[in-house]
Design brief:
The structure is a homodimer. Chain A has helices at about 5-20, 35-45, 75-85, 95-100, 115-120, 125-140, 150-165, 195-200, 200-215, 220-230, and strands at about 1-5, 25-30, 50-55, 90, 105-110, 145, 170-175, 240-245, 260-270, 270-280. The first copy, chain A, is of the alpha/beta class. The first copy, chain A, has two domains: about 1-175, Rossmann fold, CATH 3.40.50; about 185-280, Pantoate-beta-alanine ligase, C-terminal domain (Pantoate--beta-alanine Ligase, Chain: A,domain 2, 2-Layer Sandwich), CATH 3.30.1300.10. In chain A, strands 1-4-3-2-6-7 form a six-stranded parallel β-sheet, sandwiched between helices. A three-stranded antiparallel β-sheet of chain A has the order 8-9-10. In chain A, strand 3, helix 3 (about 75-85) and strand 4 (about 90) form a beta-alpha-beta unit. In chain A, helix 6 crosses helix 7 (about 150-165) and helix 9 (about 200-215) packs antiparallel against helix 10 (about 220-230). The longest helix of chain A is centred in the middle third of the chain and has 16 residues, at about 125-140. The relative contact order of chain A is 0.13. The interface between A and B is medium-sized, with 30 and 30 residues. Strand 5 of chain A pairs antiparallel with strand 5 of chain B, so a sheet runs across the interface.
């Protein structure tokens, strides 16, 4: 396994692989890898000759009052995990390698960034789109693997790939969970013992929503209020950021569960903001 | 010479060329080709095995009150010119091929877009960056040719190429002029006879600025007022949009002529907005 920090090195390695006819799968990460990342890497390994993992805590996707400085890092452990999973290359750039002095160019998808996390984090998706486009252009993967815990991110990136005519396949991968339902996230490391105990309520609210939808409830307002009630059981330890229902094409808010819908929650557990979601298959697509 | 309208066709042709080891040069245009475009195409032909000309009046680079609908078009004449110059492919997409329904992704360089044309045309460079990135990703040229009449466009696109790690060379080409100095532009077709007669004053203001700079004047305010005086000779037929001096890295306004500086003018001649400029080599780079 190779570990490189520069764009030129990373590009040279992936080009050599492609020149040998080897397909490249990419798993972009911010490091502090957990079993969710491992599932992406395994899938990439199954479907490609070579797997690249990028480990980069991307400053442009953090807002000014967010957790960039304290975002958890353990590169030695990330290296061990990647090595054990058969990764061929870790691309681990320093911020200056991605954003050199005078850097000026950003990618955005304003219409898809107004709801859900885009509302609470107005510059977040601009940062995500910019860094992921750069990774795609540097590494030129055949397939790229993303977890559906970050569902809005997946939909926006998939739209970018189509919009910019990028020649790669976006592969969505299911959210990996703790036994009690909590979605894996590097940010779970921030939780105190008490916070960790109540955090699965986010998942429970989504489970309740899915059960109501299966039972035939179509009024979003009714489902949202049941979800909010579940989160409120542990107020103020849990504080809702949003509970939103959006259709999966334009990510616009829906009032009725008829088409394919992303049902998403963001909540603060103590000071830690966590997100989770499920995808509801609309009647037309069942 | 092939003429295609779809992304897939254009990509297939340029890919086949590259697979045969042929280099591809691209000249992006909005059509209504003139001798300025011809000079870009000739240069591309000299330096590459194959030349692609894109002909696309890009709607996203026009503001709501600009001249998208009346922008001059003569595709048959463009085809003849390209054919006579040995172009291998004309990519002539319809707007829906570039911006299909639900299109959401845009590229921008806000810090480089605040001055000069970015001030008068706030969404212009977002449209330019987006369409040119798409052309680069679809056609994957080795070199791309742009006229320096649109100097801010060239600097912003060059920055995009560096920022996004695109593997191509941006080739700046000198402005081509009428015998009386007027910079060639498809928009010159809008000018009445009277307007056409006074339009060269824009160039004359720039010639005066360059003469003053050569004579050792370094105060931008002094040069700007001499330039404004020249344009005012034909007021109100000519109305200044801007006269600006910006350094060529970050495109920020300068008060003194010391470093490399772009000296740029935009002016309305009647209702037609024309631009022109020259590059002043700073003392450090002489």
């Amino acid at each position: 396994m190779e570990i490189v920090e520069t764009v030129a090195q990373a590009r040279a390695i992936t080009r050599a692989w492609r020149a040998q006819g080897q397909s490249v799968g990419l798993t972009p990460t911010m490091g502090y890898l957990h079993a969710g990342h491992a599932s992406l890497i395994r899938r990439a390994k199954e479907e490609n000759d070579q797997v690249v993992v990028s480990v980069f805590v991307n400053p442009t996707q953090f807002g000014p009052n967010e957790d960039l400085d304290k975002y958890p890092r353990d590169f030695a452990r990330d290296v061990d995990l990647c090595s054990s999973l058969g990764v061929g290359l870790i691309f681990h750039p320093q911020p200056e390698a991605i954003y050199p002095p005078g850097y000026a160019t950003y990618v955005e998808a304003p219409a898809l960034s107004v709801n859900l996390c885009g509302r609470s984090r107005p510059t977040h998706f601009r940062g995500v789109l910019t860094v992921v486009l750069k990774l795609f252009l540097i590494l030129e993967p055949r397939r790229a693997y993303f977890g559906l815990k970050d569902a809005q991110q997946f939909f926006i990136l998939k739209r970018m790939v189509e919009d910019l005519c990028l020649d790669l396949v976006m592969v969505p991968c299911p959210t990996v969970r703790e036994p009690d339902g909590l979605a894996l996230s590097s940010r779970n490391a921030y939780l105190s013992e008490t916070e960790r105990r109540v955090a699965p309520l986010i998942h429970q609210a989504l489970v309740r929503a899915e059960a109501m939808a299966r039972a035939g409830v179509t009024q979003v307002a009714e489902i949202k209020s049941a979800m909010a009630e579940i989160l409120e059981r542990q107020a103020p330890l849990i504080a809702k950021d949003y509970i939103e229902f959006v259709e999966t094409e334009g990510l616009t808010v829906v009032e009725e569960l008829t088409r394919d819908t992303l049902v998403a929650v963001a909540a603060y557990v103590g000071k830690t903001r966590l997100i989770d979601n499920f995808l509801w298959k609309g009647l037309d697509n069942k």
